[in-house]
């Protein structure tokens, strides 16, 4: 598949890249008023067996059993609330470590907080806890962190499951580093410049990009709005600058990438379900063991739109390791 040719690529770029651009799209448009506070179905988190800090990461340990250790890494502006269904599904048979990054979900941002620091801290967690061949399960930026660790320490990672997270931000794969850096700085400035509108921004994002159900969208937006806008902008900019593709060939662990698909959204861009999955495979070219599974109907937070399908895909993947 030649990604440098036709309008289909442009449509695919819009389809995938919109998830991050939506964060900075409110500078020139009027943001919706945030929904008034209400009962939130996702605030009742599962109590962990242990809570500790590694390199600035909050780590919550659940479950046990003899299964392979799982490390759950939320995406941009997200916390452990993103993984409640996953914890319930896998903690009876696996030790599950759930991370929250500095600056997200009410955690204070630190001066050095960012993708590089989280990448190092994730490696520190594996080493400090002597986790044997853990599987990194990440959403969005969390999936990209999993790919980064699999490149950094090929022999230490047993597998990576990435839900809509890729080695390079779709739409930037043909840019040179200077172009990517310029776009990243623009993104960082736009997100950090409107802290007063951050809650409304998150609501609009969740309603259009995040999930299918508007009630879920509003509940999740109230949680993501607990994150620090400046830190969110900084992480987003670092992901935009990133290109992990040169290191994919060093990865030894099998990879599962979940590609969410919603036909009503895709119809606006003329993108078929198979075309989107093929595009994701092309961005992962070089990794030796890659499986791309489409989950539909679902938006970016596929684990909320289709929790059973996502958990079934993870379970099947774990069965191959």
Written overview of the protein:
- Helix 3 packs across helix 4, helix 5 packs antiparallel against helix 8 (229-241) and helix 6 packs across helix 7.
- This protein has helices at 7-21, 84-90, 115-128, 141-152, 177-192, 198-210, 214-224, 229-241, 263-267, 273-283, 302-305, 307-318; strands at 50-54, 57-63, 70-73, 95-100, 135-139, 159-163, 255-260, 290-295.
- It has a single domain (7-35, 46-318), classed as 3-Layer(aba) Sandwich (Rossmann fold).
- Strand 3, helix 2 and strand 4 form a beta-alpha-beta unit.
- The longest helix has 16 residues, at 177-192.
- It is globular.
- It has 321 residues and is α/β, with parallel strands linked by helices.
- 41% of the residues lie in helices and 14% in strands.
- The protein has twelve helices and eight strands.
- Mean pLDDT is 87; it is low at 1-19 and 21-37.
Share in helix: 40-55%
CATH homologous superfamily designation = Alpha/Beta hydrolase fold, catalytic domain
What name does CATH use for the topology? Rossmann fold
Shape call: globular
Distance between the termini: 29 Å
Give the tally of structural domains. Answer: 1
CATH A-level architecture: 3-Layer(aba) Sandwich
Average pLDDT level? 87
Strand order of the largest sheet: 1-2-4-3-5-6-7-8
């Amino acid at each position: 598949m030649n990604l440098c040719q036709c309008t289909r690529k442009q449509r695919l770029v819009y389809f995938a890249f919109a998830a991050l651009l939506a964060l900075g799209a409110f500078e020139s448009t009027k943001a919706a008023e945030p929904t008034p506070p209400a009962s939130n179905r996702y605030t009742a988190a599962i109590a962990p067996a242990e809570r500790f800090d590694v390199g600035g990461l909050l780590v919550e340990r659940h479950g046990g059993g003899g299964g392979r250790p799982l490390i759950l890494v939320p995406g941009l502006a997200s916390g452990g609330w993103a993984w409640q269904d996953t914890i319930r599904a896998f903690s009876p048979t696996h030790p599950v470590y759930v991370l929250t990054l500095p600056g997200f979900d009410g955690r204070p941002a630190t001066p050095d907080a960012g993708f590089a620091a989280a990448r190092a801290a994730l490696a520190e967690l594996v080493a400090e806890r002597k986790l044997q061949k853990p599987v990194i399960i990440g959403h969005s930026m969390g999936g990209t962190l999993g790919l980064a660790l699999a490149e950094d320490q090929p022999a230490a990672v047993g597998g990576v499951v990435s839900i809509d997270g890729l080695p390079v931000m779709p739409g930037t794969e043909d840019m040179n580093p200077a172009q990517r850096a310029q776009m990243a700085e623009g993104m960082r400035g736009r997100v950090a410049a409107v802290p007063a509108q951050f809650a409304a921004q998150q609501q609009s994002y969740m309603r259009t990009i995040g999930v299918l159900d508007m009630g879920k969208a509003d509940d999740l937006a109230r949680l993501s709005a607990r994150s620090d806008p400046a830190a969110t902008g900084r992480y987003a900019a670092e992901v935009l600058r990133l290109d992990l593709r040169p290191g994919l060939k060093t990865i030894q662990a099998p990879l599962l990438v979940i590609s969410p698909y919603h036909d009503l959204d895709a119809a606006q861009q003329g993108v078929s379900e198979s075309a989107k999955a093929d595009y994701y495979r092309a961005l992962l070219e070089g990794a030796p063991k890659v499986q791309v599974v489409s989950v539909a109907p679902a938006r970016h937070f596929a684990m909320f739109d289709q929790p059973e399908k996502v958990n079934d895909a993870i379970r099947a993947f774990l069965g191959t390791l």
